[in-house]
């Protein structure tokens, strides 16, 4: 059996973590692994994120936010929003004077539910 080897492992039920200025590559399992019921995790700047098989509900401002050349691939997830909740937040920023960058968002086989 191959061990669960990630660049960074966020253990179950972790809260309020900020990951910034990291360069990660070539790990056996994944670069950053955020697991079971972890909330309020920020991965800053130029991230490539694959969200797979998550059930997300009862979030504060938004469920997923992307900006500054980030790429998000959301696959087989459920986002259950309450009233007036935003599931996805898209931001654009000026990285340096006169240059504005955006992000790439792909979503496959996801369910987005809103309750009235």
From TrEMBL:
<keyword id="KW-0456">Lyase</keyword>
<protein>
    <submittedName>
        <fullName>Pectate lyase 21</fullName>
    </submittedName>
</protein>
